[in-house]
Amino acid sequence: xxxxxxxxxxxxxxxxxxxxxxxxxxxxxxxxxxxxxxxxxxxxxxxxxxxxxxxxxxxxxxxxxxxxxxxxxxxxxxxxxxxxxxxxxxxxxxxxxxxxxxxxxxxxxxxxxxxxxxxxxxxxxxxxxxxxxxxxxxxxxxxxxxxxxxxxxxxxxxxxxxxxxxxxxxxxxxxxxxxxxxxxxxxxxxxxxxxxxxxxxxxxxxx
Amino acid sequence: xxxxxxxxxxxxxxxxxxxxxxxxxxxxxxxxxxxxxxxxxxxxxxxxxxxxxxxxxxxxxxxxxxxxxxxxxxxxxxxxxxxxxxxxxxxxxxxxxxxxxxxxxxxxxxxxxxxxxxxxxxxxxxxxxxxxxxxxxxxxxxxxxxxxxxxxxxxxxxxxxxxxxxxxxxxxxxxxxxxxxxxxxxxxxxxxxxxxxxxxxxxxxxxxxxxxxxxxxxxxxxxxxxxxxxxxxxxxxxxxxxxxxxxxxxxxxxxxxxxxxxxxxxxxxxxxxxxxxxxxxxxxxxxxxxxxxxxxxxxxx
Lengths: 207, 301
Known about the structure:
- The complex is a heterodimer of chains A (207) and B (301).
- Chain A has 207 residues and is an all-alpha fold.
- Chain A has 13 helices and no strands.
- Chain A folds into two domains: 2-111, Alpha-helical ferredoxin (Fumarate Reductase Iron-sulfur Protein, Chain B, domain 2); 115-197, no CATH class.
- Chain B is α/β, with parallel strands linked by helices and 301 residues long.
- Chain B has two domains: 4-130, Glutathione S-transferase Yfyf (Class Pi), Chain A, domain 2 (Up-down Bundle), CATH 1.20.1050; 150-300, Rossmann fold, CATH 3.40.50.11810.
- In chain B, the strands form two sheets. A four-stranded parallel β-sheet of chain B has the order 2-1-3-4, with helices on both faces.
- In chain B, strand 5 (156-159), helix 7 (181-188) and strand 6 form a beta-alpha-beta unit.
- The model of chain B has no long low-confidence stretch (mean pLDDT 96).
- Chains A and B meet through helix 6, helix 7, helix 8, helix 11 and helix 13 of A and helix 2, helix 3, helix 5, helix 8 and helix 9 of B.
């Protein structure tokens, strides 16, 4: 993965804005930011961003490539879309943040242990396996992502939630065995593989 | 023949023994009384939700939604696609918008779907809609009132609209900062709505309730506290993620903050199902972890 990163550094040299415009979802909007800061002030997790969106936009223009792509900031996005509806220039900020996070992840330089990055991967693998969310597998995978002992601890901490969901029939206790997805998951995998190939080709990322 | 008919995208959480299975039960009861027929999109798949972005990227995410739209066009031609889940609605609508705006993205998506013998036209001029839009726009408040046999009088509701039913698309004629439709729905069936509920559109943390539990629970605490502050008996919401996050973490929040939260979190469809004479079971009230006793009492009358 770091090879892809090196290749991108060489390709764009010091023009990080161009790199973002060409490779990040909705990245062509970045230069439209007028630094008003409404996005940063509107974000529910705003204080937890080392660099709030407004700052990220300026950092991109200032060529601060490493700082932007390795920060945990974008991973604080809850997808609440507050920034989008309030932005006076109507920048699709949520999508740009997702796009930056995805790009950093694909380059292999996103923060490895960031919990939202890890959860996002678990989630995508969960839904694409059968085509529909397996909620039991999703929770278990999340609790046990740091190994068995911490998994037991997490599961115990969440026991009251799980029992509540089971009692009200909102969780299938046998989902590891009898979870149903789409009729032909293999065909869905073919579609997603092809989609990824096309996307990588368009963005110049060799997988 | 049913008065209204739609192509229905139920989504993962609405399935039997899934986290919003009781939402689905109440939607079925509600739609029966309103003479709404929901034709499920055969073999639909997950929308990818928002949180799928890191691994999913752009085109794979759109392909997930495009497959559903293609299946709907093929099997339920000409019918509006209706979703009950905020994330499903957002995901499908966003994909339709993006494909409509980019010839390249549409061509790529078509190329991918061909592998499964599917095609997407987007010629279906009917938009992708949320169930609350169907209620407000197609049925109307007068129509919502029609099947009513019981009033929800005496119950005070904090209408928690949340994020994704409200942003970025929202409902026509409503503001992002203070949407009124949920309050109007409550009042239509006789309940008391706290129209100036402060946390009406505050984010519950969404999927980050899993990955950043402390930060999310702080949000949830604010949402519940404001409901109590304004004297709410229960919270009502149109979103399965909002419902779950605000309901199931109350124990943990109590432990962490020393609060004594124990407030029911219901769906608009549960309110309507009860007002239409449904039993507690018809309204999926047996699916609420914190029981909505006042609604159950009205349902039992």
